[in-house]
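Sequence only, no structure available. Ideas?
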Amino acid sequence: MQFVIVTGMSGAGKSSVVHILEDIGYYCIDNMPPTLITKFVALCQHSNLVMDKIAFVVDARSGERITHLTDEIKEFKNNGNLCEVLFLEASDETIIKRYKETRRKHPHAKGGLLIDGISAERQLLSEIRDHSDYIIDTTGLLTKQLKEQVLALFEDHKKYKSISVNIISFGFKRGLPLDTDLLFDVRFLPNPFYEDDLKEKTGLDAAVRDYVIKTDVAQSFLEKLYDMIDFLLPQYIAEGKSQLVISIGCTGGKHRSVSVAEELAAVLSKNNYYTVVNHRDIKA
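Reply:
I predicted one. Tokens follow.
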């Protein structure tokens, strides 16, 4: 049997992921108490039911019991079961917007401010996030994009190496991204901001990418960057690390960092690393 545990922040898209998993043949169980997972699996294994792919949604609705999830997963894997954990998260602003639209009550707000509930939930889920196999930040993601990422992990997952790479482009003037493992400053590259015909474009536009990437200094930097990342990723895998966050920054986060992030993501994807790109400040 193949098992997936879907967890993460309320409002980050767990319901959407369940629908996607159901479409590819998973039997999905929502709001599963962590301590019942092993018992349910044992029941399935000794029954006549044909269920080779099962997904559990376990989240903060379980209250303090969610803190037992990490131990349950360890025991589960020690018994020889194949289990992967997908953690969904989103920015505070995104979660607040989604709750305002749905008018649903946050499980940890308890009559207080929504932001307090979100903060309490982040703290409660911090340990399981650290032990997750995959993390998807749904901030700014369309449903179609979320579906593509989930299918890449759980429908075509065998083609990917056992580490997920999250590449974040950002602007230094808006602060450093949280949870960064590796950070690269590309403010030494030529800046399209000072070109009238490129200023209002972004690193997603071919003209900007060409302006930044096709210079000799950029080509030399990228060659060294690829070589370093190619060396580091197998070392992280050997250490047991399941996800890596690479942040690439320029001044505003719209041109140079975006261009380099896209180039790096393309190379890693070609080399069968599951790669997610988040351009944090591209619309700022």
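The CA atoms of residues 81 and 257 lie 41 Å apart.
Hope that gets you unstuck.
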